Amino acid sequence: MKFTSSSIGHEISAVIYGVDKKLINDANFLKGIVMDALKKDKFTILKYIDHKFSPRGYTLNVLLSESHLAIHTYPEHGSIYFGLYSCKCRGHGKQAYEYFIKKLKPRDIMVDMKDIVVKK
Predict the structure, then answer these.
(1) CATH number of domain containing 53
(2) CA-to-CA distance for 83 and 94, rounded, in angstroms?
(3) CA distances from residue 110 to 49, 70, 83 in whole angstroms, order as listed
(4) Within a domain: 116
(5) Tens of pLDDT along 55-72?
(6) H or E stretch including 81?
(7) Alpha-carbon span 80 to 110, nearest angstrom
(8) Measured between alpha carbons, how far is 52 from 46 in angstroms, rounded to an integer?
(9) Is residue 1 part of a domain?
């Protein structure tokens, strides 16, 4: 059976403000909720690479069958960047994003969600 991607992907880009200082510096917590979020939204995780900066900060990139996810923390500002793209279908990834936000309980969020048409 030959697989064909959807002609519409979905992109979520967010800056999450007012994240608890304890949570934003906990790399294991952040990686855990990202992986849980992706599994809940039925993404296929292929590989990930992450790095904990000294004295603070964390970045995580996850390669997915459906594309990719990245987070990067800014502990000195109490914020996290979240970026997710899925080639699966319109709206895919929203459940993962909402789970991530629910676990962080931020003060504010600036988010952009949009469908990406890859075939005209």
Answers:
(1) 3.60.90.10
(2) 11
(3) 25, 16, 12
(4) no
(5) 999 999 999 998 999 999
(6) strand 79-86
(7) 11
(8) 21
(9) no
Residues involved in catalysis: 67, 72, 87
Domain that holds residue 34: 12-107
The pLDDT, as a whole number, for residue 85 is: 94
- Note whether 30 and 16 are within 8 A (CB): no
In a domain, 5, yes or no: no
Residue-by-residue DSSP string for 39-58: HHTT--EEEEEEEE-SSS-E
Contact between 32 and 49 under an 8 Å Cβ cutoff? The reply is no
pLDDT of residue 45: 96
Q: Is residue 83 part of a domain?
A: yes
Contacts of 110 (CB under 8 A, 6+ apart): 14, 15, 17
pTM of the model: 0.90
Q: Work out the number of other CB atoms within 10 angstroms of the CB of residue 53.
A: 12
Report residue 1's pLDDT band, with 50, 70 and 90 as the boundaries. Answer: low
**Domain count within the chain:** 1
